[in-house]
Amino acid sequence: MTNRIKLAACAFFLCAIGIAQEVEFTQYELDNGLDVILHQDNTAPVVTTSVMYHVGAKNENPERTGFAHFFEHLLFEGTENIGKGEWFKIVSSNGGSNNANTTDDRTYYYEIFPSNQLELGLWMESERMMHPIIDQKGVDTQNEVVKEEKRLRVDNAPYGNILAEVKKRLFEKHPYRWSTIGSMEHLDAATLEEFQAFNEKFYVPNNATLVVAGDIDIEKTKKMIEDYFAPIEKGAEVQQIDIKEEPITEEISGTYYDPNIQIPAIVLAYRTPSMKERDAYVLDMVSSVLSDGKSSRLYKKLVDDQKQALQIGAFNIAQEDYGQYVVFGLPLGDTPLDTLTAEVDEEIRKLQTELISQREYEKLQNKFENRYVNSNSSIAGIASSLATYHTLYGNTELINEEIDIYRSITREDIKRVANEYLNENQRLELKYLPKQEEAAE
Question: Which residue(s) pair with 329 in the sheet?
Fold first, then answer.
């Protein structure tokens, strides 16, 4: 009887957790086109104010790559009412923190403040949108910052150029073909007028989503948003790109020499569908089966059992227009790269010809349930998710519904998707080698 009561209590507790994960939000649009999403959670006196602009590296002029990432830095330089170098001081002196990040598809700015500083966060983001100062001094300052970042994270980092080398081979027409950080030569050649025009085109309310999440009062927050953001003028309509790639029908072979490494790497990359398509979700699960954790198929086989790899991973990189499925391996000892490729291909063929076991499938579903719970476990995480689902997916309700997509994926789906996208004639095989091997090739 006691055990039955305990089980019933446990079931009730788990049910309560499931209900608690439902994220409620209010969504509306200002007259100037700014999309607003509010999420109230008064459990802790913290608030996140964030703005996601629907502009990333893919929106750049091919002769001026790196602009979106550059603006991630530039729009911290100051505004008409926030002095140069004052932004971070204001945030920290009021008990807050802030950051920004850029992808090929969007740029995201956010502040996390004690909830009594909500109005400050809204004012600062409205200043960034309405009154940025884009002058030559700021451009020159951030040019040096971005160059140093590229030196540290890309040029001098071991394997730092892998993704850039993959992208420029997987894509011929689409702007995903260049790196998010872009070309320093392009930034050096750009005029101040070009930077100002980029700001005027993309950093406008009708190309942005404002999310406020945390310890707020909805009606009071709406009033503050109206006061600070409604006066900002609407920009010209932003047309997102629509560029299609021809299917890859023959394996692409490539070689790259990296002076920062001593161990060669093999990279297998496949072009996959948009993050908005259901098959992209299935590819997340394929990735988990192959390389998520020490019990995953590739890790257990190549690292633990056969001791042929130092490291092995399969990653589904989901993006708005196309995705990239990338397998990366470092050989152990004298294991040839071709051997790693053959072993990876064997495991992919198993997915293409055999259903994963029921036990493996149940473990997979549990992993994705846990990921869903964790993604909504913080106010900052919820704010980011709300902005992403609205901006890139066009469906804010996915914050509550996406888990149902994963739940609906079957073992047959995994087999079908592996057959559709992960074939040798549809991929890039990139040998990523130490610089000294160049002479021996």
Answer: 266, 312
Number of domains in the chain: 2
439 pLDDT higher than 50? no
DSSP per residue, 387-416? HHIIIIIS-TTHHHHHHHHHHH--HHHHHH
pLDDT tens digits, 74-88 = 999 999 999 999 999
SS3 for 247? coil
Q: Is there a contact between 26 and 79 (Cβ–Cβ < 8 Å)?
A: no
Range of the domain at 342: 252-440
- Asked whether residue 163 carries a pLDDT value surpassing 60, the answer given is yes
Q: Which pLDDT score, from 0 to 100, does residue 387 have?
A: 98
Q: How far apart are CA 230 and CA 232, in angstroms?
A: 5
Which residue reads 């090929």 in tokens?
A: 104
Q: What is the mean pLDDT of residues 376-403?
A: 96
Here the tokens at position 86 are: 């004052």
Question: CATH no. for residue 130?
Answer: 3.30.830.10
* Spatial distance between the Cα atoms of 425 and 150, rounded to a whole number of angstroms: 33
- For position 14, what pLDDT does the model report? 42
Q: What is the token pair recorded at 197?
A: 């025009």
The verdict on residue 17 lying in a domain is: no
- Can you tell me whether residue 365 is helix, strand or coil? helix
What is this structure's pTM? Answer: 0.93
Residues 6+ positions from 259 with CB-CB distance below 8 Å = 434, 435
